[in-house]
Sequence to fold (244 residues):
Amino acid sequence: MDEDREPVAGEAGDSLREPLATSPARDVEDPLPQRLRRRLDASAEAWCKSGQAGSADVPFLGERLVVDRRAQRRGWYAAAACLLLAIAGWWPRLAHLASDAANGISPLQADAERGRQHLLKSGGEHVGRWAWTHDSGLAADVRGEVVWDGKRQEGYLTLSGLEPNAPAGRQYQLWIFDAVRDDRYPVDGGVFDVPVHSQSMTVPIRPALRVSQPVAFAVTLEPVGGVVVSDRSHLMALARAGGN
Fold:
């Protein structure tokens, strides 16, 4: 092989005498030509505009409200049935109220009297009845009785002849004397009012404590709201257990 051969113009150099020339490595790619960049930007802008214009042509898929007519009718039928049941349940009560109003009896008084009658019919041997006494110092014209069921802890007073308490600014208060308690501290049975022109009253007993063995019931006239311990200076009525 001739090592002094000259290279031919336009041909690559001899691999044995000199290596092929290589281009230096490029760390950063050449930027896009300005012309090409402008064309790309224009195409992107045109595409965005065409998308906005075409969105108006997209149909709107709204929700359609579907009403179940059968279920709606069933709901109305159920409501009507409930209304009829309510009317049927309240009709006797409304009839009682109309009758009481016609006789000049307040609803509270009518309810109390019905409760008393029910207690007398259903209480049996547990129900005791004691009349108001006419001892000296008590109003002679007070009439009525005490009905008490020790098992149910339920009872009622019937009273007539007590003066209305509204003008005096006071209230009547019931006291229950229990054989197992100190006589100085009878059980509070609740306060009540006697309205003007009241001829007879039925008052439910509301004991503050359980009564084991009642021996007497007393009514006093106290400040509005009642007192914790009465001085008994205004004793208005008294009923002793076993009295008739």
Summary: Helices lie at 34-55, 69-102, 107-122.
